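Shipment paperwork, digital attachment
Item: protein structure file
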Amino acid sequence: MHEAPLIATLVSGIVLAFVFAALAHRLKLPALAGYLLAGVVVGPFTPGYVADGHIAHELAEVGVVLLMFGVGLHFSLKDLLSVKSLAIPGALIQMAVATVLGLLLGWALGWPFAQGFVFGLALSVASTVVLLRAMEERRLLETERGRIAVGWLIVEDLAMVLALVLLPAVGGALAAGQGVSFGALAGTVGIAIGKVILFVALMLVVGARLIPWLLARVAVSGSRELFRLAVLAIALGVAFGVAGLFGVSFELGAFFAGMMMGESKLAHDVVEETLPLRAGFDVLFFVSV
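Attachment content:
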């Protein structure tokens, strides 16, 4: 097993996830509980075989990308804009309150300001994957509440892009015992915001036209295999490309790729062709947790 860590991690994760999910189903518990227990069993804190943590993390990233891509297929820009009046202020206020509460708790425990701030910031962001999976199981994604929740999560993801850009700059200055230059900080924020705006504009202007056109051209060939490959290439390629070019997360890139693909008349075919693969990698994500 140690000679093929990728295969061993895949097999052990999927087989044990099936076993414990079946047990959870018999006990009338969510399948998610079985997936998490499977991860504990092959983790480093229980005896016996230990899966490769690095490989499990990378498989989990693929699972997140495919899950967010699938969610994006069910949404349009109109859906997101319809909930902006609730999602934008709601997400920002919730993040601010949670960050302050975390900061106060850190202060009460005697932590440095920076440590308490990062702790509060971590508390302020919901797990996009866990929340979306829970709503998907309850068939809430296409309801009004589901659209608000997705919009809320997208705002959180965009806010975290800025936070992850700022933290190294501010943390580095504080660690060196230097004051934070507000001019440099403003420049860093401006560049990050500019990249996000450019990313969104590129997806809405170019992606909304190019992706459906490309799918239609592939569909004309009549090859389901080529069509399936094109869908995966677009989903993974866009997610990986925008993460490197614009500094946004893989998940956000995959969501927008799915949303642009959802504008195509072939969106229903895309959902059917990718469902088994998405389901398998979703399981591996929760095992890796």
